[in-house]
């Protein structure tokens, strides 16, 4: 059986192609399959389920860096970065993150203040996927590099800045815009994704 290597700064998430239906219910906002509803409003049959060993679907326990034997007929392996990643929102930019790159360029965010002024702002967002949340990302979005993941991240970031801008006047925003940005570690990004304090992120390109 061939050995598969998971590089440092990544985790592996297994998707089993055999077994019974998954039974591990994901609690909290991350497990809701109906966006916008509070956790207590979501029935158990409308929540995300992960797989225990012997069950079909996305396995709940990620694989750490290292080599492991893998039956590719029985399992599909999805690798996700667990190092700090960066998304830039700037004017005249709309290039997606490439494989092995730690940053992506997106269009600037246009905000409207309480006194009716509209203008673009450049934003830099640093985020991290914690290993324990990697299976949720795979189950809900497929991976950490595809369009579904980018759309979820972009929607959350743009909503944060637009909602904050609506509460202040344009002059106040321009004088101290940093007061309107969520401090590191507190931005309300999609549940499996968390913002992170500044740091280095130099993941090696995947094969």
Characterization of the model:
The protein has 207 residues and is of the alpha+beta class. The protein folds into 2 domains: 3-81, no CATH class; 85-195, Tetrahydropterin Synthase, Chain A (2-Layer Sandwich). The protein is 16% helix and 27% strand. It is built from 3 helices and 13 strands, in the order ββββββββββββαααβ. It has helices at residues 134-141, 147-165, 170-175, and strands spanning 3-6, 10-16, 24-25, 49-50, 57-58, 66-69, 75-81, 85-90, 103-107, 109-112, 118-121, 123-128, 194-195. The strands form 5 sheets. A 4-stranded mixed beta sheet has the order 9-8-12-13, with no helix packed on it. The chain has a 3-stranded antiparallel beta sheet with strand order 5-2-7. Strand 10 (109-112) and strand 11 form a beta hairpin.
């Amino acid at each position: 059986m061939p050995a598969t290597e998971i590089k440092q700064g990544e985790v592996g998430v297994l998707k089993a192609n055999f077994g019974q239906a998954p039974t591990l219910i994901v609690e909290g906002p991350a497990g809701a399959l109906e966006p916008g509803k509070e956790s207590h409003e979501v029935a158990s049959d409308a929540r995300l389920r992960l797989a225990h060993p012997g069950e079909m679907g996305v396995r709940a326990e990620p694989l750490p860096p290292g080599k492991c034997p893998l039956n590719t007929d029985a399992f599909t392996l999805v690798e996700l970065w667990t190092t700090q990643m960066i998304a830039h929102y700037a004017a005249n930019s709309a290039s997606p993150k490439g494989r092995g790159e730690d940053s992506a360029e997106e269009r600037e965010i246009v905000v409207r203040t309480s006194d009716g002024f509209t203008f673009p702002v450049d934003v830099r967002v640093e985020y991290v996927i914690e290993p324990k949340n990697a299976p949720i990302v795979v189950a809900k979005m497929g991976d950490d590099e595809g369009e579904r993941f980018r759309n979820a991240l972009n929607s959350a970031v743009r909503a944060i800045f637009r909602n904050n801008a609506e509460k202040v006047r344009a002059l106040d925003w321009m004088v101290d815009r940093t007061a309107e940005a969520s401090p590191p570690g507190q931005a309300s990004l999609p549940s499996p994704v968390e913002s992170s304090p500044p740091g280095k992120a130099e993941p090696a390109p995947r094969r």
